[in-house]
Amino acid sequence: MHPPQPSAVSFEHLSDGLGIGVASPRLTWTLPRGSGLQTAYELEVDRHGTRRRTGRVDSADQVLVPWPGPSLTSRERATVRVRVWGAGSEPSAWSAPSPVEAGLLDPGDWQAVPVGAGWHEDPEADRRPARVRKDFHIEGTVARARLYVTAHGLYEVEINGHRVGDEALAPGWTVYPHRLRYRTHDVTTHLTEGANTLGAWLGDGWYRGRYGFDGGTRNIYGTDQSLIAQLELTYEDGTTRVVATDGTWTAAPGPILTSGLYEGETFDARLHDPDWATPSGAGTGPWTAVRTGTRDPATLVAPLGPPVRCTQEMAPVAVTRTQDGRHLLDFGQNLVGRLRVTVDGPAGTTLTLRHAEVLQDGELATRPLREAYSVDTLILSGTGPLTWEPRFTLHGFRYAEISGWPGRLTPSMVTARVHHTDMRRTGWFECSDPLVNRLHENVVWSMRGNFVDLPTDCPQRDERLGWTGDIQVFAPTASFLHDCSGLLDSWLTDVALEQFPDGTIPWYVPVIPGEPMWTPIHPGAAWGDVATLTPWTLFQRFGDPGLLSRHYPMGKAWVDLVERLAGPTRLWDTGVQLGDWLDPAAPPDDPAAGRTDRYLVATAYFAHSARHLALAAAELGHQEDAARYTVLADEVAEAFRRRYVTPPGRLAGDSAAAYAIALVFDLLTAEQRAPAGNRLAALVLADDARISTGFVGTPLICDALTDTGHIDVAYRLLLQTECPSWLYTVTMGATTIWERWDSLRPDGTLNPGGMTSFNHYALGAVADWLHRTVGGITATAPGYRSIAFRPCPGGGITWATTRHETPYGTASLSWELTATGMTARITVPDGCTATAELPGCAPRPLGPGAHVLHTAWSHAEAA
Fold it and tell me: Using alpha carbons only, what angle is made at residue 585 by residues 580 and 591, rounded to the nearest 5 degrees?
């Protein structure tokens, strides 16, 4: 029997160490099951056949441990393994070796230049995408081949007719002038001795496609559509060769006639030769010289997280043929992706694929898409069965309509392929109430659909932007459900790049034109506070002090700006504020006109951000900053109380959101908290526990009620099924979270507002309360190194199961009510400590491993 071993080492927040952009990547491992707490570790690094060991290091650290020894150089490959000591004197077995290989770490490593179509293109019109190719000859045996690739626009690469990689919409969307992401592929097995061809499909994407509000803006970053690729070959004899994009490449129009992220894609199969990217394909089109461009190689960066991929395929649950020959498909789930069809028909047969999230009177309801037409068109070649899906677009849809299908369409002929950033799933929740389970599943699907390379606001209409306020409120939920650390770290890097010199954080990042409401940009509470609150959330959930440190200057500049705007009064009561956005009482055409004073929201967030900036400063060892911002937070809280709170604890405006904000942000005195909590509960009950909060108040209200002794009211709010409520949407058939509480009204009509999405995660932030309060798992130290298992049953829910894959391993809690109390089954990850705080018993410390606890208590209120 082999001795237990730790998991294989991982690097930074990546699942794969190939092409890493960090010269000294940090290392993470989980302990062998049953080993308890780590007391020491030893690392071994094999570089070029030379092994170096650290020797025993007395430390409990196992997450993001510093790289041992000299930094990696560009292209350098190493393997790393670890062994650990627990309570005993003997070490574990060594982990399996983990390879890590540096990408191109120095700008001087790049020889490639952008290459694209050499013909004239009208920058104001739809432009037919190009394909580019390069023939080259290999003499000898290739021991190793790496392709480093990116584009101005989007790309898919083929070598000798075979697809390289499986990512979609590569290279994703960053602030292109400053950061363009490249990816490293091992293409050794793609090559053959003799003639070879490297080719790429190109698309407009975010770079030059039409994007944004009111018809969008073209050419936001440039007018070219170009590939940047560098193929590096290492032969068995150690010699090397580089095949890079340059003026010797050729280009030709491809069979994609038009392509846009909003518009969809048109593909003419009559113009496609599948051998175009093979050595025999040079004659498959009018190949002409490319136009070369320029790119500062210092702006080319390696990924911090996974790419967008197809992660699931779904067959239609119903196919209905209309009297005029169209086919209406229902996939049973609102999703983000595109259709793959297998079809055969005469040459010139044209299939039109339309998409929508909901139906109205039995037809696709496309009004909420606005100017994102979401139409794909396929023209058949007549040469036999064809399997096709678009390459450079995604749609948000549950329903699809196909016109022009030749013959009979069966469900096996059409597949919906779900696309999003391929984050590792880390969080699960289920309970005895099926409606709550469906609500939670809706949150998961909305996160998947809106994490498409960055955290977007809606995946279907002419928007799909990285709104800062939306992810600020949703980050606690997101970081439980998926390992989104790399994606959000990368996006926050772009937030810092887009931050104004005065400290203003834009409404959305990357910034694109947004007249008249969003341009020029103004500093706004809750949205700008992503600079302080989201890095802190990610630090708490993933235990990464480096991430906290990288984004600390951005948060500091933001708080300093608000301090200047507030002035000596410490009240931020000026400027453009969105308040409690999408309060259900706000009129459809003015989502900021809710019940809560928008300047109350702004001042509260000022105090909250200053407080969290102080916490971050203390964590990072910036003691002077910690003291300064603690004083500032106290001063703002006092100013808040003077302006907005009466001595008995009644708040100005007397809205549920105001009380929730003041309570959760800890802005009230000890004497004011109970009256404020009582008033909040009374307001909720006076409206029969219907929702009366928007984007800001909704993530906080259940915690505010719970923390002030009104968990019964929180459960009533959760379980309400009348509009507006979380479960109203479920009873109306929702399979994702809606942007508005009444995106679909009780009579089945669409909300008349021009901003109506059926896939928008912000109001799903209640799932964080489900995980912590109903499910009962709360991190009490960064990275879940310490955990509180603290379930609070209620609402007639009789059992719940919650699991989270922490950086240290699996934490889980399954509880059920019994005739006399509760039975709880708890798993504490090796390397962690925990406390069980179950109803009816004193807190109990727990060590790593599995525990079964029984408590006796009266739970009539939870029955």
Answer: 50
Helices assigned H by DSSP within 720-804: 726-731, 767-769
CA neighbours within 13 Å on the CB side: how many for 42? 15
Tokens representing residue 802 in the block: 């919650």
For residues 114 and 133, what is the distance between their CA atoms, to the nearest angstrom?
A: 13
In eight-state DSSP terms, residue 773 is I
Q: Within a 10 A sphere around the Cβ of 50, how many other Cβ atoms?
A: 8
DSSP states along 268-325: EGGG--TTTTSGGGGGSS--EEPEE----GGGEE--SS--EEEEEEE--SEEEE-TTS
Contact 596, 583 (CB under 8 A): yes
Cα separation, 633 vs 617, whole angstroms:
13
Prediction pTM value: 0.97
Residue count of the chain:
863
Q: 352-403, pLDDT tens digit by residue? A: 999 999 999 999 999 999 999 999 999 999 999 999 999 999 999 999 999 9
Q: Give pLDDT tens digits for 116-174.
A: 999 999 999 999 999 999 999 999 999 999 999 999 999 999 999 999 999 999 999 99
Phi-psi region of 69 (alpha: psi -120 to 50; beta: other; left: phi over 0): left
The DSSP string of 631-660 is HHHHHHHHHHHHHHB-TTSPBTT--HHHHH
The closest alpha carbon to 316, from 435, 384, 397, belongs to: 397
Tokens 């300064």 — which residue?
628
CA distances from 57 to 42, 67, 68, 350 (A): 6, 13, 11, 67
Segment 174-213, tens digit of pLDDT:
999 999 999 999 999 999 999 999 999 999 999 999 999 9
Report pLDDT digits (tens) over 716-766. 999 999 999 999 999 999 999 999 999 999 999 999 988 999 999 999 999
Classify the C-alpha dihedral 508-514-517-519 as positive or negative. positive
CA–CA dist 381, 383 (Å, integer):
5
pLDDT at 1 (0 to 100) = 47
Token representation of residue 793:
């049953």
Confidence of residue 2 (pLDDT cuts 50, 70, 90): low
Per-residue exposure over 87-120, b if at least 16 CB sit within 10 Å of its own CB, e if not? eeeebbeebeebebbbbbbeeebbebbbbbbbee
Rounded to the nearest 10°, the torsion over CA 753, 754, 755, 759 is 90
* Prior bond of 316 cis (ω within 30°): no
Per-position b or e across 437-449, b if 16+ CB within 10 A of its CB: bbbbbbbbbbbbb
Band the pLDDT of 274: cuts 50, 70, 90. very high
- Active-site amino acid positions: 463, 739
What's the pLDDT at 479?
A: 98
**Amino acid letter, residue 201:** W
The one-letter code for the residue type at 298 is A
Q: How far apart, in whole angstroms, are the C-alpha atoms of residue 147 and residue 168?
A: 17
Largest CA distance in the chain: 85
pLDDT at 214 over 90: no
747: Cβ contacts below 8 Å, ≥ 6 apart: none
